[in-house]
TrEMBL record:
SUPFAM superfamilies attached to this UniProt entry: PLP-dependent transferases
This enzyme's EC code(s): 2.1.2.1
Domain of life of the native organism: Bacteria
PANTHER family membership: SERINE HYDROXYMETHYLTRANSFERASE, SERINE HYDROXYMETHYLTRANSFERASE 1
Segments forming domain Serine hydroxymethyltransferase-like: 30-393
Gene field: glyA
InterPro entries, alphabetized: PyrdxlP-dep_Trfase, PyrdxlP-dep_Trfase_major, PyrdxlP-dep_Trfase_small, Ser_HO-MeTrfase-like, SHMT-like_dom
Name of the featured protein: Serine hydroxymethyltransferase
Keyword Signal recorded: no
Molecular function GO labels: glycine hydroxymethyltransferase activity
Cofactor(s) the protein requires to work: pyridoxal 5'-phosphate
UniProt keyword terms in alphabetical order: Pyridoxal phosphate, Transferase
Source organism per UniProt: Bosea eneae
């Protein structure tokens, strides 16, 4: 489908250095910009249902591209080791104060460069250096690799045990309590990455308290739903919470908020900088300050409600088409479909991409806890593009048909046309660079 890029003007080899400092992106890097343009066109033609995907508003992307990319303010607001940070301090304080107010937190750090990094730093700050014990939500059941997985640094040199879900897909709180009593963890860490239901964080708090463990809630996927009041907010009763800036928070990728009780603040600040990172990325922090203002508005809550309604409608469409869902449904933007074992994971990714549909091939527990092949869908990106509930249900039905046809079926041209039309009918807002 790809069209070759139109010839673009480039800088000649005898251009002086001031020429390339003044040239815009198209003149400076025509070949790369052409690829960026092609990627944008591909995105427009696609139905992006990657659960972590959203479209950052134009204004936030503009702020990330300001001259602030050049700034490197070491330290925290009011305590920098370089001069001329007055405005950067004011910006970072806006991000912090707004985040505190929205999520009801005593302390916020906005410098971590991703939610994964935030988890590494926060765990380092609150766990003992030796002999640390963690109780986490199982990765297969829907936890995240940065919650102490063996192949991740958060699991290195730590004793990690995990609880999962019951046969109906509810958090197995009995198992969590048993493991907590048996292993006396320092920290109970949980948050949904591929678990589509609202997590009962309050119940986990009770279990953590019973064994004097700290509670660390990872709300990377659901922080937008929490800000909108659709899911209960665990931040006020958690010792630490982290979230990324994309996903349901709808900001640009690569950022994080760390919320914590005040008493952990200094240790977390130090674990982020200088423990893991260099100076703060002021351009990204500025975008976070504006993002926090954006998500406090009624229009954002309305978007979140539509996102959840679309996820439910899409899931219902899948079920109408004979596809089972992990946990039997969704309370969020995320839908986990059991695809049937005839598909391999690469076949799933390619088979759906052949129709322009994007998501993640993964696994989820079956009713006996056994790993089953699953595909994770999300409704954030398409809802921003204006997908209606009716269209979401129809789309679920189309996907069910594709999944049931199996990996050997050839692409149905009529279905392909319908799905291309659906993508074309929903342009991405302000999708320019
Ligand atoms: C996506 C995710 C992360 C990682 O976020 P990044 O900002 O992409 O590093 C951490 N925790 C959970 C639960 C996630 O789903």
């Amino acid at each position: 489908m790809s069209t070759s890029p139109a010839p673009l003007q480039t800088l000649s080899n005898d251009a002086g250095w001031h020429d390339f400092f003044d040239a815009d992106a198209r003149r400076l890097g025509a070949d790369v910009v052409a690829l960026i343009d092609l990627d944008r066109e591909r995105e427009k033609r696609s139905l992006n249902m990657i659960a972590s995907a959203s479209y950052a508003p134009l204004g936030l992307r503009q702020i990330e591209g300001t001259h602030l990319v050049n700034r490197a303010p070491m330290g925290l607001p009011g305590r920098r080791s370089v001069a001329n940070c007055e405005e950067l301090d004011a910006i970072e304080m806006l991000a912090i104060e707004r985040a505190k107010a929205i999520f009801g937190s005593e302390y916020v750090n906005v410098q971590a460069l991703s939610s994964t990094i935030a988890n590494v730093a926060a765990l380092r700050a609150i766990l003992p250096a030796d002999g640390a014990r963690l109780l986490t939500f199982d990765e297969l059941a829907g936890g995240h690799v940065s919650h102490g997985a063996l192949r991740h640094i958060t699991g290195a040199g730590r004793e990690v045990v995990s609880f999962g879900v019951t046969a109906t897909g509810a958090l197995d709180l009995d198992q969590a309590r048993d493991l907590a009593r048996k292993t006396r963890p320092h920290v109970l860490l949980a948050g949904p990455s591929s678990y589509p239901r609202e997590m009962d964080f309050a119940a986990l708090k009770t279990i953590a308290d019973e064994v004097d463990a700290l509670l660390f809630t990872d709300i990377a996927h659901v922080s937008g739903l929490i800000a909108a009041g659709l899911h209960a907010n665990p931040v006020p009763f958690s010792d630490v919470s982290t979230t990324s800036t994309q996903k349901t928070l709808c900001g640009p990728r690569n950022g994080a908020f760390v919320f914590a009780k005040e008493r952990f603040g200094a240790a977390i600040d130090a674990a982020v900088f200088p423990g893991l990172q260099g100076p703060a990325a002021s351009n990204m922090i500025a975008a976070r300050a504006v993002q926090m203002e954006m998500i406090a508005r009624p229009a954002f809550a309305q978007l979140m409600r539509e996102i959840v309604a679309n996820a439910k409608a899409f899931g219902a469409g899948l079920e109408d088409g004979g596809i089972g869902l992990y946990t039997g449904g969704t309370d969020s933007h995320m839908i986990m479909a059991y695809t049937g074992e005839s598909w391999t994971q690469p076949q799933l990714v390619a088979g759906l991409a052949a129709y322009g549909i994007l998501g993640n091939a993964m696994r989820a527990p079956g009713t006996a806890g056994e790993p089953r092949t699953a595909f994770r869908f999300g409704s954030v990106a398409l809802t921003i593009r204006g997908l209606s509930e009716t269209e979401a249900a129809v789309l679920g039905r189309e996907v069910a048909d594709i999944l049931r046809a199996g990996p050997e079926a050839s692409v149905d041209p009529a279905r392909l046309r319908r799905l291309k039309d659906l993508a074309a009918a929903h342009p991405i807002p302000s999708f320019v660079d």
